[in-house]
Amino acid sequence: ATGLEAIALTKTYGDGPTATHALAGVDLRVAPGESLAIMGPSGSGKTTLLHVLAGILPPTAGTAMWRGRSLADLSDADRTKLRRSEFGFVFQSGQLLPELPADENVALPLMLAGVARAEATARARQWLAHLGLRGMEGRRPGELSGGQAQRVAIARALVGNPGVIFADEPTGALDQTTGWEVMNALTTACRAQGASLVLVTHDVDVAHWCSRTIQMRDGLVVGEQRQVPTTGAT
Ligand code: ADP
Ligand code: ADP
Q: Distance (Å, rounded) from C-alpha 6 to C-alpha 179?
C-alpha cells in the first residue's frame, strides 16, 4: 500500500442512452519510483484515468488510492492539500503564468505552501539549473522556446518533492527533438527524486521512456508491457 492503486475504477459521463462509459473497470498499481505510460486511441479513457488517479475527478465506482488511503475518504480540502503537496502535474502546454518570470513560476507552489519567498526562489533556481535552464530564470514564458517552457513546467511540478508526477501529453506540442529533450529531463528528474511518473501519450517513442506501458481501449486496460526505459545516455 505504498504507491498509487486503482481498484475496479469506473467512470460514466452523463446518464441514460447518451452515457459514456469512459472507464469500464480498471485495476492498476504504480509502485514508488515506477514510470507508467498510458497509451490507447483517442477516446479510450486515458485522460479520465489520469484525472481519477490524481484525485481531480471522482470515479463513478471503484477506488483510487494513494499510499494506502482512498482519495474518496478525504474531504475536498484534504484532497486539494494532498494534490498540492504530494502530486505534481505537467500538461501539454499553457500551464505557466505568462506574466511571471520562470523562477517565480517555479517558486509559486512552494510559496502557496507557506515557504518564504527567498527560500522558495532559491529552490526554484536550483531546479531550473538542474533542468538546464541556468540564465533563463528571469524570462517570462513567452520569451522561452516550447521545450524550455516545458522544462520550467517540469521544474514547477517537482519543486515540492512530490511522490508522483502526472503528465498528460507533455510533449504533444513539441517537435520530435525537443520532445526527446523534455522526456529526458522529465524522466531523469523523476528518477533523481524517486518520484513515480504516470504519463498519457499516443507516441510510442515517448512511452519508451517509461518502465511500463499499458494500452487502453474502450475504458479497459487491454495490454501491458514492461520495458527497459530509454535514457538520455548514448
Ligand atoms: P482519451 O484521453 O483516451 O482521449 P478521455 O478520457 O478524454 O479519452 O475520454 C474518454 C471518453 O469519455 C470519450 O468518449 C470522451 O468523449 C468522454 N468524455 C471525456 N470527458 C468527458 C466529459 N467531461 N463529459 C462527457 N464525456 C466525456
Ligand atoms: P485533454 O488532455 O483530454 O485534452 P484538457 O486539456 O481539456 O484534456 O484538460 C482536461 C483537464 O485537465 C482540465 O479540466 C484541467 O483540470 C486540466 N488541465 C489541462 N490543461 C491544464 C493546464 N494547462 N493547467 C491546469 N490544468 C489543466
A: 29
**Could you please report the per-residue DSSP string of 140-183?**
-GGGS-HHHHHHHHHHHHHTT--SEEEEESTTTTS-HHHHHHHH
Span 111-136, pLDDT tens digits: 998 999 999 999 999 999 999 999 99
> Cα separation of 102 and 156, whole Å?
9
In angstroms, what is the span from residue 95 Cα to ligand 1's centroid? Answer: 21
- pTM here is 0.89
Which DSSP string corresponds to 22-88?
EEEEEEEEE-TT-EEEEE-STTSSHHHHHHHHTTSS--SEEEEEETTEEGGGS-HHHHHHHHHHHEE
Nearest CA to ligand 1 atom 23: 13
Q: Compute the distance from residue 91 Cα to the ligand 2 centre, in Å.
A: 7
Kindly state the helix (H) or strand (E) to which residue 198 belongs, with its residue range.
strand 196-200
- Using a 6 Å cutoff on CB, does residue 11 contact ligand 1? no
Residue 63 in contact with ligand 2 by CB distance below 6 A? no
- The minimum-distance atom of ligand 1 relative to the CA of 50 is 6
Which ipTM score applies to this complex? Answer: 0.76
**The C-alpha cell of 88 is what?**
505534481
According to DSSP, the residues that pair with 64 across neighbouring strands are: 6
193 lines ligand 2 (CB under 6 A): no
